[in-house]
Amino acid sequence: MSKHSQNTVISKNATVIVLMLILIIIGIISGVAYSRYVSKHKGNVTAEIAKIICLMDVKSSSEDNSGNVITPADKTVINPYCIVTVKNYNGDISNPTEVTQTDISYTITVKPKEENDVPTFTMPQYNWYEISSPSATSGTKVATSPSELTGKLTHNSAQNKYYKIVFLNSGEQDITRYVDFEIKAVQDNAQ
Known about the structure:
By secondary structure, the protein is of the alpha+beta class.
């Protein structure tokens, strides 16, 4: 082998090694650049989760303060009612243990109880009234059957909302034995 062909082989080998080093360096640089791009565009996500507290209590007009059923002397009730309390806290209103962390929109629906997916009761007509306290005798009509009741609570402090639902001409003393109340609460977007 001549000196010129030996130099050519060494030169080709050196060129191949230099090209391989350049490709490795380009691969490393592009890998680092891509990983920084991914971490900057996909890795910096911030999420804030707020705990929602929205509780409902239903008390029938046929219950005393202890929850015992009161039987009227003539056993006839024309328009039974329930007092529905919606609150945004746990514990007692004078000393809440926890208040919701976000404003709430809620919906209350009333439907007959079912047995094997068949209603056990024909729903009478009813009216919803917003009242100032559970003992209030009058209020503002806010919905009628078969509509749902909607409302809002804020997260600033512990709150109660009181409603009276009056079932018209049902003749049932303890209406809560025949109907279910369901509340659905979601974060209110108007904050």
